[in-house]
């Protein structure tokens, strides 16, 4: 009887270890799938940001005679739809103008003489974006020196 109880204890302990290993494996696989999904989403969103940049450039340099045209209104509407989509996915623009330069969020491409305090952002060259607080593209800026 003691031998049977001992074997039962060994089998139970082995089963409990196997179950714990399996649960840990499942959690590991869930984290892996989640990380892959985040990576794929982040990559797709960065590509969409390039399209948003193109729309902003098109609107910035549109001829004066087209500013109130139906075409211009349509282009602006498409850009706004892209902005809404990005916002709904947790993408936010990084604040730049009149902010202190922060290398975690900004990439300084030039330091220029300015009336502003040293290290302040004086011009945004390209918008930066964060996804749920994580920078996916730093803002490219000019800072005062």
UniProtKB/TrEMBL annotation:
Q: State the PROSITE patterns in the record.
A: GRPE
Query: What GO terms describe the biological role, i.e. biological process, of this protein?
Result: protein folding
Keywords of the record: Chaperone, Cytoplasm, Stress response
GO annotation, cellular component aspect: cytoplasm
Q: What is its main location?
A: cytoplasm
Q: Which SUPFAM superfamilies match?
A: Coiled-coil domain of nucleotide exchange factor GrpE (SSF58014), Head domain of nucleotide exchange factor GrpE (SSF51064)
Cite the InterPro entries for this sequence. GrpE, GrpE_CC, GrpE_head
Pfam family of the protein (one): GrpE
Q: What family does the entry list?
A: Belongs to the GrpE family.
Instruction: Kindly give the PANTHER family that the UniProt entry links to this protein.
Output: GRPE PROTEIN, GRPE PROTEIN HOMOLOG, MITOCHONDRIAL
This molecule's function is given as: Participates actively in the response to hyperosmotic and heat shock by preventing the aggregation of stress-denatured proteins, in association with DnaK and GrpE. It is the nucleotide exchange factor for DnaK and may function as a thermosensor. Unfolded proteins bind initially to DnaJ; upon interaction with the DnaJ-bound protein, DnaK hydrolyzes its bound ATP, resulting in the formation of a stable complex. GrpE releases ADP from DnaK; ATP binding to DnaK triggers the release of the substrate protein, thus completing the reaction cycle.
Listed name of the protein: Protein GrpE
Classification lineage: Bacteria, Candidatus Azamiibacteriota
């Amino acid at each position: 009887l003691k031998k049977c109880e001992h074997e039962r204890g060994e089998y139970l302990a082995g089963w409990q270890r196997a179950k714990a290993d399996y649960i840990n494996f499942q959690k590991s696989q869930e984290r892996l799938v989640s990380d892959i999904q985040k990576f794929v989403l982040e990559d797709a969103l960065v590509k969409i940001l390039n399209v948003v940049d193109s729309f902003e450039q098109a609107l910035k340099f549109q001829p004066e005679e087209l500013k109130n045209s139906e075409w211009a209104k349509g282009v602006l509407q498409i850009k706004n739809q892209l902005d809404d989509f990005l916002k709904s996915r947790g993408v936010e623009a990084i604040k730049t103008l009149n902010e202190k330069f922060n290398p975690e969020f900004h990439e300084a491409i030039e330091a220029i003489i300015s009336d502003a305090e040293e290290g302040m952002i004086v011009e945004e060259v390209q918008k930066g974006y964060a996804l749920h607080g994580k920078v996916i593209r730093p803002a490219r800026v000019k800072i005062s020196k």
